[in-house]
Amino acid sequence: MRGIALSGGGARGFAHLGVLAELEAAGIRFDAVAGASMGAILGAFYAAGHDPRALIEALKGVHWTRFFSLNPGRGVFSKRRLLAFLRENLPPRFEDLERPFLVSAVNLETGALRYLSRGDLPLAVVASAAHPLFLGSVEFEGERLADGGILDNLPVGGARRLGAREVWAVDVGPEDAERIPAHVLAEARRATDLMSRALVRTRLALDPPEHLIRPELKGFGVESFGRLLAIAEAGKKAARAYLEALA
């Protein structure tokens, strides 16, 4: 079985669509999908059977600013609006998907890494994307869950848990070096990004995927939602280069 793991990275995650489009055009398709945060959102659409090229066209018309919260004290983004969007466009349960699908999340109270693959699909996806600085935690089946990227931003192990023996991983996480504004929230986000990046490197060393694609995304931030086409194109370019290197 061939699986794909899609990392978190905010708007940088649109590169996943470009990578998937190129790989499918080359005849490489996936039987199972695992995602974290934005990788969970886009992975859910892919697991539901949506063509990546069609998704690029469909999602470029989404006004992502409508997900911003009118009550910043509860998070920069609105969980309610994001959940409503996902409920409108995704199947209600994991069991209704065309492909096995899993998302990573973290129990904020126990510190446990959680892999979710059953039950309420849209709610689980929001939980996986619930970055404490941007969305706030989500109650899911009695647990207080937050962004899977806190502990497992590139869930290669999640794809293997679904039965994948050949795992392709796409990492759109933060850059090693990045200039940031002198602002306390920007510094806090960068600090969490650095911790997540270090954990990703450790996990990759312990359980490396068979294939790893990391698109060149300098200049694209987690907030670059208005640049979907350019970010997706960067994903396509990275996938083409990787396939050429394999040939």
Mean pLDDT: 89
Number of helices: 8
Q: Residue ranges: pLDDT <50 for 5 or more in a row?
A: none
The gross shape turns out to be globular
What structural class should be given to the helix and strand makeup?
alpha/beta
The description of the largest β-sheet is: 8 strands, mixed
Total beta-strand segments: 8
Helix content: 25-40%
- CA-atom Rg in angstroms: 16 Å
CA-to-CA gap between the ends?
Answer: 21 Å
Q: What order do the helices and strands follow?
A: EHEHHHEEHEEHEHEH
User: How much strand?
Assistant: 5-15%
Descriptive labels:
eight-stranded mixed beta sheet; alpha/beta; 8 strands; 247 residues; 8 helices
Could you walk me through the main structural features you see in this protein, from its secondary elements to its overall organization?
- There is one protein chain.
- The chain has 247 residues and is α/β, with parallel strands linked by helices.
- It is built from 8 helices and 8 strands; from the N terminus they run βαβαααββαββαβαβα.
- It has helices at 15-25, 38-47, 52-59, 79-89, 121-128, 156-161, 184-206, 228-246, and strands at 2-6, 32-35, 101-107, 113-116, 138-140, 143-147, 166-170, 211-213.
- Strands 1, 2, 3, 4, 5, 6, 7 and 8 form an 8-stranded mixed sheet that branches.
- A hairpin with a 5-residue loop joins strand 3 and strand 4.
- The longest helix is centred in the C-terminal third of the chain and has 23 residues, at 184-206.
- The model has no long low-confidence stretch (mean pLDDT 89).
